[in-house]
Design brief:
The protein folds into two domains: 27 residues; 105 residues, Lipocalin (Beta Barrel). The longest helix is centred in the N-terminal third of the chain and has 24 residues. Helices cover 18% and strands 58% of the residues. It has a nine-stranded antiparallel β-sheet, with no helix packed on it. The radius of gyration is 20 Å and the shape is globular. The protein is α+β, with helices and mostly antiparallel strands.
Length: 137
């Protein structure tokens, strides 16, 4: 009888530990870190970007995005409204005095891919612009 109790106790400890780690780390920790990717617009524009995602002590996510075109940085912006739901992500950033950008994507096979839309200053709707892909560094 003792031999059956020990494996059950060990398994109970493993399950308890896994549940505790999941609660502490959070289900969205896969998104935290450095990402590098490419973007392309429907009008033919394209470039690269670097995305940094950080978790805060209060459980929220934040970070920054730096975009490049033809090897030159075109802007860098802090992220706002970062959201992770399962394998889906979304966040926004602003290009001052120009527009707000909405990024939406999905994790697939360890990478991210999705679409982005612009909302010009003083407009209410986002306008689809293009697509993007990124890999965690």
């Amino acid at each position: 009888m003792t031999s059956n109790r020990v494996p059950c106790q060990i398994m109970s400890c493993i399950v308890f530990f896994a549940l505790c780690c999941g609660a502490v780390l959070g289900a969205d920790d896969w998104f935290c870190g450095q990402w590098k990717g490419t973007w392309s617009q429907a009008d033919g524009g394209s470039g690269t970007f670097r995305l940094t995602i950080r978790g805060a002590e209060d459980g929220t996510l934040g970070g920054s995005l730096t975009a490049e075109q033809n090897g030159a940085e075109i802007f860098s912006a802090p992220l706002k409204e970062v959201s992770v739901t399962g394998s889906n992500v979304s966040f926004k950033y602003e290009i001052p005095d120009a527009m707000e950008v909405l990024i939406e994507g999905e994790q697939r096979d360890g990478s991210l891919e999705g679409v982005f839309s612009f909302r010009p200053v003083n407009e209410t709707s986002f306008i689809p612009q293009g697509s993007w892909k990124a890999s965690k560094q």
